[in-house]
Amino acid sequence: MQLAGLGRLPLALARVVLAALRGRLGALCWSLAPWSLPLPLPLLSWRRVSVPGPRAAAGPRPQREQERDGAAPTPTSVNYHFTRQCNYKCGFCFHTAKTSFVLPLEEAKRGLAMLKAAGMEKINLSGGEPFLHDRGEFVGKLVQFCKQDLKLPSVSIVSNGSMIRERWFKKYGEYLDILAISCDSFDEEVNVLIGRGQGKKNHVENLHKLRQWCQDYAVAFKINSVINRFNVEEDMNEQIKALNPVRWKVFQCLLIEGENSGKDALREAEKFLISDDDFEQFLDRHKGVSCLVPESNQKMRDSYLILDEYMRFLNCTNGRKEPSKSILDVGVEEAIKFSGFDEKMFLERGGKYVWSKADMKLDW
Fold first, then answer.
1. Considering only CA atoms, which of 273, 250, 249, 251 is closest in space to residue 260?
2. Would strands 322-326 and 312-315 be described as parallel, antiparallel, or unpaired?
3. CA 127, 132, 138 angle in degrees (round to 5)?
4. Residues 157-194: pLDDT tens digits?
5. What does pTM read for this prediction?
6. How far apart are CA 80 and CA 123, in angstroms?
7. Which end of the chain has the smaller Cβ count within 10 Å, N or C?
8. How many angstroms separate the most distant Cα atoms in the chain?
9. Which one-letter DSSP state was computed for residue 99?
10. 93-107 in b/e burial notation, b at 16+ Cβ within 10 A?
């Protein structure tokens, strides 16, 4: 259809035609865009993956996505939950195993390259349990790509640690800046109550083994703890100081509707909840731990950029995870507008810190 003919069309139809032409032009510009990032395969060799629409993958959507005012934020630090599958059953988990979908490796790499081009400096690979898929090879290849090809200043993983083997460190350890291991208690009976247990394996003993491997292979060691009804009275001072992580991130147990709360949830985390006062008392008991980094519900909810397994930003502003469109379909700048991300709170909570192991000056 010739553009000159648009003047003879009804106004409504002309608008539809123009919108379609703009969409095709945008796709053409994307396919011809110059790529300065070193990628292992030419862009045109990647196969397009059909990503299920938000309604099919994540349940009913709100009537209207809420876009934050002002310019789109920069994705400085991104948490990519590339899998929902996990071998543990933590009762408060707020990224539950609703699907087994994982993007093909090259599609995941393409999305990560797009994020780097948009300003990403740190990627945190998480799940589910990231070492479950392909026995850690998938996450290892992502780590290597992000550090070696994208040259990101910081590449980190959050894991429960149960499936990590020393051979993984030998192959991929040089590319990893930080390994964060989830540990909510130093009492194995409490870990079992929480759901962080697997047969006869001792979660705490494994934590010390992983700490040693991190030292042997020059990876910064971090601990994440969710403070909840079962561990809020625990004194962890001695154990944390002995392990000496670079950071001890302490979260207040958080409810997310549809994930660990509500009729569509796979978990019922209400019994794990603690009050703000309970959380403050726990923090006060551990104020002598220099690596302690506390995060209340208020700080945590909107100050993380979270990508799901389809590379959609998850907006938690309304108390549930409402997905944007995938960055693979609409680009980072468009998708991030609907992330609900509070960039100011991200900076206030100390979201940007010395996160490259090259700058930490650690005694390996």
1. 273
2. antiparallel
3. 85
4. 999 999 999 999 999 999 999 999 999 999 999 999 99
5. 0.80
6. 7
7. N
8. 80
9. -
10. bbbbebeebbbebbb
Among the options 93, 146, 183, 253, which is catalytic? 93
CB burial class (10 A; 0-12, 13-18, 19+) of residue 300? middle
Is-contact 97 266, C-beta < 8 A?
Answer: yes
Mean pLDDT (the chain, rounded): 84
Cα separation of 187 and 96, whole Å? 24
Phi, psi of 212 (to 5 degrees): -70, -40
CA–CA separation, 196 vs 183, rounded Å?
8
93 classed as catalytic:
yes
Neighbouring CB atoms inside 10 A of 183's CB total: 26
How many angstroms separate the CA atoms of 208 and 203, rounded? Answer: 9
Helix segments in the chain, DSSP class H:
11-32, 54-58, 105-117, 137-144, 166-172, 188-194, 203-216, 237-243, 276-285, 297-301, 327-330, 332-336, 343-348, 357-360
For 33-57, the pLDDT digits (tens) are 433 343 333 333 333 444 444 433 4
Q: Which of 29, 90, 214, 291 is catalytic?
A: 90
Is 146 tagged catalytic? no
Regions of the chain where pLDDT drops below 70: 1-70, 197-199, 364
How does pLDDT run across 67-87, given as a tens digit for each residue? 445 678 999 999 999 999 999
Cis peptide before 197 (omega within 30 of 0): no
